[in-house]
Structure formats: C-alpha cells, structure tokens
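Need a sequence for this fold. Nothing fancy.
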C-alpha cells in the first residue's frame, strides 16, 4: 500500500510542487508565530567626515538647524530588532560628497547609515536622508580654562588651590559658534575628600547663559586636561581686638563687641595648629576723644594672609566692631574737715580749718558711683615745715580705685597756731588773705545737699 502511494506521488509532479509550497507556508507561519515582525526607532548624531575638504577653502561647515541628527527606524524579526541599540549603527556624512555648485546657502550632504550587526536580518528605513550645511568663515580664539569643583569635602576639610594644566585652550570653528563661547571650565569632584585629588577631564564650553556648547564642527587643541585640587584643614579661630586712645573727659571705655567673634579658616594643619587667635592691631580701633560708641568695619583677610591662612567662605571678610563708650556721672560729697588727716604738724602746734565741710566732686560710671561712700574717700593735708599762720593749700584726695576720678583739685584754708605762744603774737604769719575753700575748677559748685551730706550732678 505504501509503495503504491509513493509510486503515485513520484509519477505526479503537480502534487510534488503543492507539497513543497505547503511546507514553505507552514514554515513561515511557524516562524511568524515564534518570532514576529517588529520595528524600532533611532535618533543618532551624525559623524562628519573629511571636514578638511572645506577648511582648505578657508571656510568651515556649519550644520543647519538639527540636520546633523539622523532619524530612522528598523524592521525585522523581533529577536533581532530588540537586540539592536544606537551603538550598533555607524551614521556618517562625508563632506567630500557635497556638491558645492548647489544653489542657495544650504548644501546637502548624503547621510549613510550602516548596521554593525544583523545587517541581513533587518531593514533600515531612513527619515533623514541628508544633512544640511552652510559655509562660514573660520574663527580661532584662545580661552583660559577656569578650575571648578563640585561636591563638599569631608568634615574638617576645605578646598585650597585648584589648578588646571594646561590652562589655555585654542578653539577654532565656525565664527557663529566660536563667538558664542563665553568661558571654558574644567571641573573636579571633591565630595567627601580629605586629601589632595587630581583627575583628567574634558574642558566644557559655556555660553553667556551658562548653557553647554557642543559641536562636531569645533576643533580643540586639548581634549583632556589635568585638574588638581589642594584639600586643606579647617579651624574656627577667635578674633581678638585691641583699642588705642582715650575717650573724652567724663566718658569711659567699657569694652568691645564684634560680630562674628570667630572665623572659619583653612590652611595647612601644621600652620593652623600654631594659631590660637586672629589679633587686630590696636591702631585699627581708635577711641581718642570719643564721646559715643565707635563702630568700625574691619577687613580681616590681610591679617589672615600674614599668617598663611585664608577664609573658608570668602564672603565673610568683614568683621563689625563696636567700642562701647559710656558717659560718667558726677557726684559731690561734702566731707567733714574733721576727717581730714593732718600730717607733719608738730605736737605743740594746733591747726583749725576755716570751714566745717569740704566739697569733693567725683566722676564714675553710674553703677560704680552707687557703691561709693563718703567713708571711702581719704583726704590728707600735709603741713610739714609750716610755721604758725593762715594758709591755703591743696589737699590730697585718695579715691578707692581707678574707676573713680576727681573732677578737680580742692584747696582748703586753715590756720596754724603755736599752743605755747602768747595770743597777742599769734596770727601774724598769713599765707593768703582769703578764707574758705578754693577749688581748682570754678564751675564745680555744691548743689542741693541731701540728708547724707552728699550732692549729685548729672554731668
């Protein structure tokens, strides 16, 4: 039976052909079910070849709009299509193929797209066929590469000097692009770093708005530069200020206030360890003749430079200093002449004052004045070598401490008599014909006396 069927098929060509066709269709159906058709889109920058063809003419090519980006899609079995990426294609535009005789400013350059793999398994469908260029004058400029950092160093560390080598970049290309370059920078990451660090990086071009400029039409003499960052130690150091001069009469210097009172500085660890304070010289804050607070703004940077250190935050260069000047109050104390200490009086002499009270004007800060009592003031009269007679002499007044000052010296009239001499011969030696108290400052006169025998004056 089987032999009859095989003989029948062998003798029937039409049936043979139908079997083959059926097999092919069946295979295609199986393939499409297992690995169906798929598509995938790509957008890849065009690599420009043979630019020297244009530069030899003294011109440079400038891409019109975004025509240097090729847009295309591929189709084929899904297993191949989904396995393809942008890196699997070579997209080029050869400037040696441009037709310079074309009318208009824009010239068309054919774009070639080649798959690096699966070339026979996929189909490339191009949406962008040509790149458009215009020919411009060539421009060349040199830029200094500025050094920049990103990130924050480790705690207790700060960025010192940052240098780029080489620091000069020569850029040539279309004048319209070169003229847009505002600055060139190289950047290094110092985040969490506590030691010196270096890196090889690509310089980045920026326009005046801080936007990055990229173009295959630019030629740069240094594609990679070396950037080094010096990492320094930091330290909070207090500020110490001195003053010079003396306030006006009747005023007292109370102290200094300044903000900030410490600064965060950076430097080599060995240098910072030897610095305990930033000392501002006394001549910077002069209070000579001051009758009110003296305020000064001091630039601290010069004093740091002398020490070989610098500020972590360069904007914190100003230190505001205020010298506090306070007005003193004046108070009059009426002391009893009985409390005057007499020195140098012989035992056979007797001394008497023309008045019972001695007015003494004292000046001090209000809180100090509240503590001063009459008993704290010592008055001494030295009459050594004086003979019997009437005299006017300056008394010595001792106040308890430098915080008190005598407004004026006080003269006191007194009489010395010899207790053993006849009355009729006494009183002939007279030093002055005026009696009473003669103060050195005629403007200081007692005001209203309180029940303690003291008088006050707000001067």
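Here you go.
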């Amino acid at each position: 039976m089987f032999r009859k069927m095989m003989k029948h098929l062998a003798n029937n060509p039409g049936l043979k052909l139908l079997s083959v066709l059926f097999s092919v269709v069946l295979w295609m159906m199986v393939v499409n079910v297992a690995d169906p058709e798929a598509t995938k889109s790509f957008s890849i920058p065009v690599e420009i070849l043979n630019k020297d063809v244009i530069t030899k003419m003294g011109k440079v090519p400038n891409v019109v709009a975004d025509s240097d980006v090729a847009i295309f899609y591929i189709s084929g079995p899904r297993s191949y299509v989904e396995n393809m990426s942008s890196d699997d294609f070579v997209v080029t535009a050869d400037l040696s193929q441009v037709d310079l005789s074309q009318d208009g400013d824009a010239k068309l350059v054919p774009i070639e797209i080649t798959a690096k793999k699966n070339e026979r398994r996929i189909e490339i469908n191009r949406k962008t066929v040509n790149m458009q260029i215009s020919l411009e004058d060539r421009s060349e400029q040199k830029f200094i590469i500025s050094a920049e950092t990103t990130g924050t160093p480790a705690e207790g560390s700060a960025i010192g000097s940052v240098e780029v080598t080489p620091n000069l970049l020569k850029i040539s290309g279309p004048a319209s692009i070169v003229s847009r370059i505002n600055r060139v920078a190289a950047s290094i990451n110092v985040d969490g770093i506590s030691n010196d660090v270096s890196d090889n990086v690509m310089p980045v071009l920026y326009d005046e708005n801080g936007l990055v400029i990229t173009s295959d039409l630019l030629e740069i003499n240094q594609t990679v530069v070396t950037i080094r960052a010096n990492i320094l130690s930091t330290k909070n150091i207090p500020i110490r200020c001195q003053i010079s001069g003396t306030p006006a009469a009747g005023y007292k210097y109370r102290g200094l206030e300044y903000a900030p009172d410490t600064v965060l500085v950076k430097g080599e660890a060995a240098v910072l360890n030897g610095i305990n304070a930033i000392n501002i010289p006394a001549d910077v804050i002069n209070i000579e003749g001051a009758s009110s607070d003296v305020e000064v703004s001091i630039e601290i940077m010069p004093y740091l430079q002398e020490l070989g250190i610098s500020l972590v935050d360069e904007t914190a260069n100003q230190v505001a200093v205020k010298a506090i000047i306070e007005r003193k109050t004046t108070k009059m104390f009426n002391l009893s002449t009985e409390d005057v200490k007499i020195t140098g009086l012989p035992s056979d002499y007797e001394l008497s004052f023309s008045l019972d009270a001695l007015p003494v004007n004292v000046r001090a800060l209000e809180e100090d004045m509240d503590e001063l009592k009459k008993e704290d003031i010592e008055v001494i009269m030295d009459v050594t070598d004086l003979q019997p007679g009437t005299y006017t002499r300056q008394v010595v007044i001792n106040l308890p401490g430098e915080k008190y000052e005598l407004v004026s010296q006080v003269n006191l009239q007194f009489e010395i008599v010899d207790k053993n001499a006849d009355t009729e011969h006494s009183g002939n030696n007279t030093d002055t014909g005026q009696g009473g108290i003669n103060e050195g400052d005629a403007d200081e006169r007692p005001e209203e006396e309180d029940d303690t025998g003291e008088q006050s004056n707000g001067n």
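For context: The longest helix spans residues 13-34.
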